[in-house]
Q: What sequence folds into this?
């Protein structure tokens, strides 16, 4: 990965896409909490009018609220980590963690296409990189791979060390390497200093990156 | 008369809670969590109103709205969305949606809109019936 290769507008569009997706998910969380809390209110109003109150119904509505608060908390934590990815231009990045975060942020995209997105095999690897640019590259590779797959498929993304750098693999069981024919994405990856290839052994697309030089 | 409503949304917990609240308010509610099950529910039942999520995994709400209007042109559709944009609202209204609401929705406003949808549907059905009767009378010699 080389520095200053991503046009500012591309970065801004990526930030916008992720923010829009996250805000939409939070709205859905609020919508469920709103209805579950409303249901509790309805039950209490009915009880005031003499109808028997069923404790299990109250419990299930309260459980729904607690579950959505946990969901909302995870979404906000991920958004916070994403926002902090711009704190430093280059730093030592734990790639398995970064992959996990990128997968979490891309999950809604996969859900909308009815594709199961998972973090696959991740070996411990860290290298000097611009974590925002790296997430942009990885998120774009996931989006391009999802475009090549169909509803019901699974996309697994993994990472391992390779030749002083690292390689991300994107594979779908029973399918060819999902980025194999995507020249537009390959061109974008090259512009960011990454190389796109195919691992014939496990029919995976491979995204190879090298450490970024730290600024003087 | 209880309003017959089809509620379409991929968030199952949202569907369960909202449908129960609507039932408490006297409505007859069916739910669908996918576009496919919504199409099947639509073809097998009559509804006064459909409450439709704008973003479904297997079909977006605008596409679903178009499909509903082709098969059931008189159907009253209220779109619900997590992120209401002016453009999506205008597009939905142009395609024949009755109304457009942002999540989280206020149950009283939604109930009011559903009652309006039922009234509108009744007017359309009455007009159609009157037109059919008039047509029969003009063609029969008795």
A:
């Amino acid at each position: 990965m080389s520095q200053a290769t991503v046009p500012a507008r591309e970065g801004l569009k990526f930030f916008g896409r992720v923010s829009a997706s996250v805000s939409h998910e939070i709205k859905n969380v609020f919508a469920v909490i709103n209805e579950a809390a409303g249901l509790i209110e309805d039950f209490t109003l009915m009880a005031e009018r003499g109808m028997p109150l069923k404790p299990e119904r109250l419990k299930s509505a309260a459980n729904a609220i607690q579950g959505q608060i946990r969901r909302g908390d995870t979404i906000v934590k991920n958004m916070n980590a994403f926002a902090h990815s711009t704190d430093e231009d280059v730093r030592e990045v734990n790639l398995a963690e970064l992959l996990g975060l990128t997968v979490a942020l891309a999950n809604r995209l996969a859900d909308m296409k009815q594709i199961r997105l998972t973090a696959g095999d991740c070996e411990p690897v860290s290298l000097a990189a611009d974590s925002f640019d790296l997430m942009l590259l990885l998120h774009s590779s996931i989006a391009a791979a999802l475009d090549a797959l169909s509803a019901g498929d699974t996309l697994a993304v993994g990472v391992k060390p390779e030749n002083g750098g690292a390689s991300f693999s994107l594979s779908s069981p029973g399918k060819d390497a999902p980025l194999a024919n995507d020249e537009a994405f390959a061109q974008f990856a090259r512009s960011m200093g990454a190389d796109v290839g195919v691992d014939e052994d496990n029919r995976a697309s491979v995204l190879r990156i090298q450490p970024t030089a730290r600024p003087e | 008369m209880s309003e017959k409503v089809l509620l379409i949304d991929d968030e199952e917990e949202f569907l369960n809670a909202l449908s129960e609240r609507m039932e408490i308010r006297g409505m007859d509610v069916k739910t669908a969590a996918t576009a496919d099950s919504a199409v099947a529910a639509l073809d097998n039942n009559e509804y006064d109103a459909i409450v439709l999520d704008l973003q479904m995994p297997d079909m977006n709400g605008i596409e679903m709205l178009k499909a509903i209007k082709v098969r059931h042109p008189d159907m009253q559709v209220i779109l619900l969305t997590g992120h209401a944009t002016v453009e999506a609202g205008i597009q939905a209204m142009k395609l024949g949606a009755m109304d457009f609401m942002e999540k989280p929705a206020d149950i009283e406003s939604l109930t009011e809109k559903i009652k309006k949808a039922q009234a509108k549907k009744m007017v359309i059905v009455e007009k159609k019936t009157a037109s059919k009767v008039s047509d029969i009378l003009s063609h029969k010699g008795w």
Summary: DSSP finds five helices and seven strands in chain A. The CA atoms of residues 40 and 186 of chain A lie 53 Å apart.
